Structure formats: structure tokens, C-alpha cells
Structure prediction request, 622 residues.
Amino acid sequence: MCGIIAYLGKKVAQPILIEALKRLEYRGYDSAGVALLGSGAIRIKKTSGRISALEKILDEPDAAETLGIGHTRWATHGKPSTINAHPHLDYTGKIAVVHNGIIENYGTLKTWLQNEGAAFASETDTEVIANLIGYFYAKGDSEEEQKKSDGQNKFEWSVQRALQEMHGTFGLAIVCSDFPDTIIGAKRGSPLILGVGDNEYILASDAAAIVEHTTQAIYLADNEMVTINPEGFHTKTIDNITISKELKQIEFSLEQIELGDFPHHMLKEIFEQPKALSTCMGGRIDSRNNRIKLGGIDSYLRELTRTKRLILIACGTAFHAGLVGEFLFEQLARIPAETEYASEFRYRNPIIEDGTVVISISQSGETIDTLAAVEEAKERGATVLGIVNVVGSSIARTTDTGIYLHAGPEIGVASTKAFTAQVAVLTMLAIELGRRRHIRSDQASKYIDELSQIPDKISQILNQSDHIKQIASANIDQDNWLFLGRGFNYPVALEGALKLKEISYIHAEGLPAAEMKHGPIALIVDGMPVVFIATAGPQYNKIMGNIAEVRARGGKTIVVATEGDENIKQHADHLITIPDVPEFLQPMLTVVPLQLLAYHAAVLRDHDVDKPRNLAKSVTVE
Ligand code: G6P
Prediction:
């Protein structure tokens, strides 16, 4: 969702802001803009559409402008348009703001400001922030208010005053034409990181826009703000209490977020899965002692071993990983587990009994519904564990304990390697809890050994990419698809359908195979593609029955089966195979051909795979 960038240094700001905005593109957006300072008044350029459209309307970079803010907007309040694009200038023309988040009381504030004479140009909630800061800046210089401001400059004081009136979420970068060498950043609910370079500062929504310049950063917490100028920066709460923040190392390199030889980040990340999983599991699998070592949660392992109930909360693809986790915890650890959409959990008056542990799963660690659900669970007394990819993200910092994926940055909007890494972490945790609770040591050792071979087995599946492309091509004109699986592969069917919808814009439904008969079977017409996950396992014969039902009605079967299954050949219009592994390890393999199928279908339909319409990588508003 919305991406924020701000630069202050000795270099010309405009090209730096544009490059940084390109790094934030993957978050999802529909318009973009910059505001530059240095040679007088604030100079704003903004437009609806892509960064390439913004580049077309930019003037030549001005060498005097070494400070600026920029934004990619994902519309919430007001349609995507140039007028609604950020930065927003206040009614006095002195304050410019870029914003990520939602101001819930913007309606009330807007009416009040209008009554006070402030004019509005856009439909956005962000303009209320600009105008309120502008209002306090213009009016708030009475002696008494200045006294309260405790010697700080008027700009900083006005920002604090305005933010104290705001309900909702914000990540902000703000400039004022009277202070052409100052940027103020502030955060509540939306991420904001300050990259600290050599005589330069880059404030951004995420580290991808910073690593090109520096890997040293401070992570702002909620209700904190930072004021940056050429002399340095200082951090405070928005209530004006000075705080000191620790400089942290950003844990990934520029190379990891570049495309390299791949045409799309999504394909790169699909192919990175063997490596991502090796890194995720490396150092955690202790084959000599038949154990899994999950260092981060050491002090919580006894509580987890004794837990009476696990609740997994997540959104999107991470939710599907959670569903796999439910099967894993029940089967391997014999712990009752249930998975909930984070957005439903938080508004449902959930029951947290003694001994309940909540596991939140999130690639970005910033999904607002998951974050809010974590807070809700904690408030109700649950211990909350996070399974998160982005180090230092909000969910990672809010949970009591956690396990990082270490899958490397995921840029493709359609999540791929994060899913397999989430399932890998859940598998490791389930095996370790199972070993502590009831699994015999030789059995645990066998599981661990099989798990450690998964990365190599994914590599074997990736070799079928061209074959899968042909399958996508043969069915590319079909607008309705079904994805069916049972048991451990039922969540994979959901994930396969989601992938196809996200990037190919083809309507797809994922279902537990047996449910097909209770309605969706009515959809099957001649030539409709139905993807079956029919791998070796206890439900194999049942799913063969479902395949027959689809074929009898003219459906076309695309079957993911186990290598060496000769019988399946006569039932599949298209066959994709995976290496033979126990059922509980299959999701990490069966999902890979479905990721490739969706990818190739999207490319064949000529869609922008890494920037699917309307979607955002990190959903930071409710
Ligand atoms: C968005 C993304 C999905 C992702 C979901 C949850 O919808 O487009 O790919 O699965 O958010 O994100 P998270 O970062 O919490 O895993």
C-alpha cells in the first residue's frame, strides 16, 4: 500500500526520490508524486498512474533541491486521480505532507477546518493532516502556546498539535517552506524507517527504498516522530517527550531485491524457494540430536509444549499457511489448533482460555488486521508468537516471541517463497512440539531427515516450469477454474486458486475436493479446467472418485500427482508430478506447480505480474 519516501542530504533529491519510489512500487499503488525544497517555495509534481507517468511530467532536476518527499498512493479516500495524489499542500501553501494510513475522524476535522476558513482541493483524509498542521502553524503562535512548545520550533509544535487530534493510523513525511532544511516523520500504525547514511537521511515506509543508500536505520514505534536536518536528527513522542532510538542493521542487500536474470520478481522468488527454505531451516535442524532448535522461542518452549489450544491468525496467503499449520499441529503434535482470518478474529469477541497460545503469521509483519488481532489476543491474556519474514516489523515487535522466516525480501505481490517458508517453520515447530509430547525419537529423526530434503525436491519440481507453461497455454482461454485438494492439500488448493485470481484475473475457486458435490459441481462445463492435487496419501482413492465426477461432466483435469503413479495417467488431461514425500510435507511441494501455473497464465494473458491491479503487497489499512 502507500509508500512514503523522504530524502535529506547533499545530493540532488529528485532522482533519488524517483528511484526510491520505484523500489516501493511493489507495495501496490495507483498514483505518485514528489515535493521538492531548496530553491524557494515547495515544488510539487504528482499524477495518477505509474511512476513512469510521473517521470514524464517532471522538470529537469534542480541542483539546489537536496531535500524532498515522495509518495506512491493506493487509493482509500477518493478515487485515483492527480488531485487526490500525494503530496498534499495545506491551504496556506507552506506545509506539504505524504501519508500512509487512514485518519478515521477526518470528516469531523475537515468540517471544523472548513468552518475556520481552510480550503480543500481533494477528497482525501490526508489533506486534513496538511491543513490541520497548516492551521496550527498559522494560528498557533500565541505567547501561551509558544511557552507550551518548550522552545521547539513552530513547525515541530504544529505537527505535534495536529497529530494529537488524529484518530486512526499514519506514517508521515512532512516539510514546511519556512524550514527548507527540515523533514519531520511521524508514525502510528503504519511503518516508518529512517535510514541513516553518511551526511544523508532517507525516511521510508520500508527498507527496500533505503538499502541502496545505507543499511543503518532506526525503526520508529507508534506515536513517535523524528525531526531531521543537516545537523542530524532527534526523536520524540508526539507528546514531545524526547526518546533515544537504537541504530539497527537492515538485514538484506540490494542484490536481493533486484531482478537479476529473471523477468519478474514473482518468478525469481518461486525459483528462490530451495535456497529460501535451506536458509530458513539451516541451523535450526539438528540432525545429530534429532531436534529442531528454534532459538528465538527457547524460553517459551515449555509453555508451548503444555499449550491446550493453538489459534493461528493471518490474512491472505499467510492464512493458507496457517491452515496447513492446523493439520500439522493436530497430526504431529496432537494439539488442538484452529486458523482464523485475523480480520474476523479481532471483531469476534474471541475466547482465550488459560493455556491458549496464538500464532500470528505474516510475511510483511505490517498487515494491519493481523497486527490488530495480535494486540487483541495479548489484551485477552494470550501468549502470542509471531512467524514473520520482515525483521523488526511491527508484528515482530508486538508479539511476545517469534520465529523469523529468513526467506529474504519478498517483492512479488503474489506471495510465494514466504508461503513455503511459513509452512517450513510451522512444520519445524510441530515436529519439535510433537517430539516433546509424544513422538518417538526415531520417528522424529525420520521426519527431520525428510524435512531437510524438501529444498532439493522443490528444485526438481522447478524443472517442470516449461511443461507447466504449456498447460497454462492450453487452458488460457478459460475464465473459470476449480482447485481441489483434500487433507493437507486442501489449503494448497485454496492457495492455488488465490494465486491464479491475484495475477491472472481468472476466476478460480479452491475447495476441499469432497465439497465440490455440494454446489460447485454445477459450474462444470465442457473444457473447464479443474486442478486436482491427487498425491499419494490416505485420501488418494477418494480424490480419484472426484476426478471421475469432473471428467464425466466434460471438465478438463490438471492433476498434481506423485512421481511413479502410473494409474493416474489415464485420468489426467495434464499431469504434473512431485517427488514422493509423506503427506504432511506435501504442501511445500504441491504448491510450487500451482504458483508456476498462475505465473505463466498471467504472463500469457499479458498482465503485469509484479504489479497486479488493485492489489497491495502490504495491506496497512483495514
Ligand atoms: C496482501 C498480499 C498477500 C498476502 C497478504 C497478507 O493481500 O497481497 O500476498 O498474503 O497481504 O500479508 P502478510 O504480509 O501479512 O503475510
About this structure: The pocket of 6-O-phosphono-alpha-D-glucopyranose is lined by residues 315-318, 362-364, 367, 370, 413-415, 615, 617-619 (CB under 6 Å).
